[in-house]
Amino acid sequence: MLRNDLPAEPRNIRSFYPVVITYGTFPLFPILWRIVEEEIKRKIPDYDPELLNKLQIVQADELEVIEAFLEISGLPFETLLQKKIADPVYKQVSFHSLFTGEFQHLRPLKSRHVKQVFDRFIEDLSVKTFGIKIDIPE
Questions:
Q1: Domains in the chain: how many in total?
Q2: Could you give the 3-state DSSP secondary structure of residue 95?
């Protein structure tokens, strides 16, 4: 759900995808997924198997790459999640792995925000280098 979609009306919610955002290094391998799933089953006896199947773990550093992918591809986030969850190869690995393996033609993935920060950096750099304009290819 995007900020523009808020506040959400409960009657407008069609589906729910549990997404956990992790900070720092969180290696995503199938064996780790198995541990996470087993812990959920052990600690939450009445868990919903459908929600557990939809669970996705996103590393914080992937958020800008996901944003860039959505901007470039035009896919909604829900569709991206559906594609990732439906694929047995990519379901239990990082979004970086999915993008590298399946969407190589859309690389490099840079969001508008990253491009703006980079442009500001270059402008500041050119001011600090005595006004010499430096053209850096993207």
A1: 2
A2: helix
Is 33 in the same domain as 92? yes
Each of the 138 residues of the chain gets a pLDDT tens digit; together they read 455 566 777 777 778 888 888 887 777 778 888 888 899 999 998 989 998 899 998 888 888 888 888 888 888 999 999 999 999 889 988 888 888 888 777 666 666 666 666 666 666 666 555 555 556 565
Q: Are 136 and 122 in contact (CB under 8 A)?
A: yes
57 with 22: CB under 8 angstroms? Answer: yes
Clarify whether residues 9 and 73 are in a common domain.
yes
Contact between 44 and 19 under an 8 Å Cβ cutoff? The reply is no
